[in-house]
Amino acid sequence: MSKYFRFVLVLAVMLALVVPAMAQDDMMAWECPEGFEGQTLSVFNWATYIADNTIPDFEAACGVSVDYSIYGSADEALAILRGGNPGYDLVVPSDFIVAIMAEEELIQELDLSKIPNLENVSPRFETIAYDPGFTFSVPYQWGTIGIGYSTEAFPDGITSWEDLWEHDGNVAWIEESRSMLGIGLLLLGEDPNSTDEDLLEASAEYLTDNGDNVVAIAADDGQALLERGDVDAAIEYNGDIYQVIFDCECEDFAYIVPEEGAVAWTDAMVIPSDAPNPELAHVFIDYILDPQVGADLSNFTAYGSPNQTAIDMGLIDEELLNDPGIYPTADIEEGLFEVRELPEIEDVVNDLWDEIKIEVGG
User: Fold this and answer.
1) Taking a C-beta distance cutoff of 8 angstroms, is the pair 178, 193 a contact?
2) Which residues, in sequence order, are CB contacts of 258 under 8 Å at separation 6+?
3) Digit-coded pLDDT (tens) for 5-35
């Protein structure tokens, strides 16, 4: 090898090492605006839905403290705010719940000028049906509701909802009335967001007829039942199942979006109308939308990131980004449906869901 080519090779190696380091230096850490020292932020969020460093880093950056409370279902979060906000500054409800909260004036319009990192959000979320233009909400995480299962109990895997219904063993369903009735409607060949009461009753009957193996309807902890071996499969949020998979570091569990289709959802950050500290809530939203903060969050929770800048910068773990259970392929997306705001059927849905919970497992 000539001295010239040896020099070029050494230079190339040096550049390969230096450029990534320069990129890291250029990516400035999020800085908190001044004037919030000593204040408190009260956050109301789902369980198992935040990275270990998210809250401590925010507290350190702003010199504040965070009171962090959790809830188990979208219906629970809505009911609590309807009963009077106990003091939350920021809540993370599901998509269609955002629309209901806005309609009932339970949440306030956002001041987008205080959220400069909003520019990092993927354009696909800007026209989302439940809140186009980010009037009341900003995306937090997104994903699917499918089936997490034990690979020992299902050695051939799961491909369809029928595999779950017909399983001779214990299973758990998720405490999400609209999602479950939507799945029933989908499998009956109907619109998952139908408002036809006869079709909703047919969906409830279909679910009841296929619920003999149900031993629990879990409020956001079906993954724990699966991990402990209490059930062989659970209808759950994809990230909750993936957290079990990654913590296990084994091949004992898997997650699948059934071939017939499933629920796609987006959870969003909102500020209650009577939030004690809406200014600090805006700051927290901007913090979550920082590329590195957003990437740390999604890499920990194993949910999809709405932060396109984080994805473009290569901050999302490739193992997650390439997993169709987390970032669905185009073929999978074709079978997904979103639950829409349909207040006219809320009472019907609640009554049917109560009846289902009484009947299944018998």
Assistant:
1) no
2) 146, 147, 158, 159, 160, 161, 163, 164
3) 333 333 333 434 443 443 344 456 899 999 9
Side-chain half-sphere exposure of 315, counting CA atoms within 13 A: 24
Whether the Cβ atoms of residue 44 and residue 92 lie closer than 8 Å to each other = yes
Give whole-number Cα distances, 266 to 124, 231, 339, in Å.
12, 27, 10
48 in Cβ contact with 246 (< 8 Å):
no
pLDDT, mean of residues 203-207: 98
Pairwise CA distance, residues 236 & 35, whole Å:
41
Report the C-alpha gap between 252 and 152 in whole angstroms. Answer: 7
Could you give the 3-state DSSP secondary structure of residue 313?
Answer: coil
Contact criterion met (CB below 8 Å) for 145 and 293: no
pLDDT digits (tens, 9 = 90+) for 241-256: 999 999 998 999 999 9
What pTM value is reported for the model? 0.84
Q: Where are the beta strands (DSSP E) in the chain?
A: 40-46, 65-71, 90-91, 138-150, 171-174, 214-218, 233-237, 253-256, 262-269, 336-337
Comparing 176 with 9, the larger pLDDT belongs to 176
The alpha-carbon radius of gyration of the chain (Å, integer) is 22
Q: CA-to-CA distance for 170 and 189, rounded, in angstroms?
A: 27
Q: Dihedrals φ, ψ of 354, to 5°?
A: -60, -40
Strands 214-218 and 138-150: unpaired
Count CB-CB contacts under 10 A for residue 317.
16
Name the pLDDT band for 1 (thresholds 50, 70, 90).
very low
Q: Amino acid letter at 25?
A: D
Q: How far apart are the first and last CA of the chain?
A: 78
Reported in sequence order, the residue ranges of 107-222 that DSSP labels E, i.e. its strands, are 138-150, 171-174, 214-218
**Quick one: tokens of 34?**
């001044």
For the chain, how many residues are written?
362
Instruction: Give the span between the Cα atoms of 160 and 149, in whole angstroms.
Output: 12
Is residue 139 a contact partner of residue 93, using CB atoms and an 8 Å limit?
no
* Cβ–Cβ < 8 Å for 138, 287: no
* Residue 277 scores a pLDDT above 70: yes
